[in-house]
Task: inverse folding
């Protein structure tokens, strides 16, 4: 399976990190070893002093596809989920300053939280109107709606499939909204789509 991540897909998040608004989706990958195992805590890696949480709506691919037209993209997934793209922000900035790839800052072990629960897409009136949020120690730190995405889910699937063949089980992280921040040991991060809790993890 592949973990395909989209960067800079919410304008407010682009602004909070002082990044430029892209003309097309920013795409990067995480290896399958980045997946945080079920019921395990997230351990802050020794190589970073500034790991950030980034809550994201997820899409699970359910059929093989290549060069998918946007109008047919809805046929390639049935479930919506929620996760966290952990980012070693200090390491990422060093790599960006040198024009180097981000993988060490984005794809390290345990950096991809995938909620245990998935929701059938037909449960939503519109995939472009889904509320989602992240609580840190019971306080809301990120809260947004998928209507704020620069590129919607079907657009992303079509775009990504131009470069990568999508396979059953691949997961797309669709980007994070504003409110990202540093995690500390003993933090508890809890993610919601609408009123439904999809994950809760402890930081160590």
Result:
């Amino acid at each position: 399976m592949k973990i395909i991540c989209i960067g800079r897909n919410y304008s407010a998040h682009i602004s909070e990190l002082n990044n430029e608004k892209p003309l097309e989706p920013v795409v990067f990958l995480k290896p399958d070893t980045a997946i945080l195992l079920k019921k395990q805590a997230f351990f802050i890696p020794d190589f970073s002093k500034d790991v950030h949480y980034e809550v994201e709506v997820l899409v699970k691919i359910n059929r093989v596809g290549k060069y998918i037209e946007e109008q047919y993209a809805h046929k390639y997934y049935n479930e919506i989920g929620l996760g966290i793209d952990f980012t070693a922000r200090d390491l990422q900035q060093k790599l960006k300053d040198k024009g180097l790839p981000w993988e060490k800052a984005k794809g390290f072990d345990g950096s991809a939280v995938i909620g245990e629960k998935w929701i059938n897409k037909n449960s939503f009136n519109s995939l472009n109107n889904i509320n989602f949020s992240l609580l840190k120690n019971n306080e809301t730190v990120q809260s947004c709606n998928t209507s704020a995405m620069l590129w919607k889910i079907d657009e992303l699937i079509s775009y990504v499939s131009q470069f990568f063949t999508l396979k059953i089980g691949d997961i797309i992280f669709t980007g994070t909204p504003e409110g990202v921040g540093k995690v500390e040991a003993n933090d508890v991060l809890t993610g919601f789509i609408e009123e439904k809790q999809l994950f809760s993890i402890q930081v160590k």
Notes: The chain has a mean pLDDT of 96. The radius of gyration is 16 Å. Helices lie at 11-16, 89-97, 103-106, 153-160.
